[in-house]
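Researcher: Go.
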Amino acid sequence: MKAERNAVSKEISKMKNPPSVRRRSDAMRAVGDQISALDAELRTVDEQLTAAVAGIPNLPDPRTPYGKDDSENVLLRTVGETAAFDFEPKPHWDLGPALGIINFDQGVKLSGSRFYVLSGAGARLQRALIAWMLDLHIRQGYTEKYTPFMVKEESMFKSGQLPKFRDNLYHDAEDDRWMVPTSEVTLTNLHADEFLEEASLRYAIRHTLPASAKNA
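Model: Structure:
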């Protein structure tokens, strides 16, 4: 129909008889209305198709066994030796409060279940572990990147976070930005629509915070 409209438009430009021009123009106006209606329908179909395709998960590795639950997981390899203690080790939820370095009650008070507050040596330990891990990877040849912690919706789609996890992600509706759940969101989108050499794929990631958060 669009091809027909284009052809008739060229034809009309060469016509000399005004009544004929009007008849052909009126006919093409009706065709134009049909095209507009079909374009609107096509946009809806395209949106539905995109949503359906985006919801298809990645296929698991064919070597991945089926199982009823994690009790049927297959152990592929063990790295290092399991530590042996001459005492009964305590879990962190007992050891941390006893040492005064972690407080679960305060975390729940501030933010709800599964949150905590680190104090003193606990806060220092977390900071030291982050710095140690970054330094370790840098010595191994990785490039450290300091990336934004909020991204555009497009970046979330390209890294596979949307649409599946839409209801579990934090979204700033006012600025239409999404808080990244993991560093691969920004890492993969640094090179969206690019072709890369394998040797260049070495990064250690840390995220930026807004000035207000830093000052706080």
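Model: The mean pLDDT is 87.
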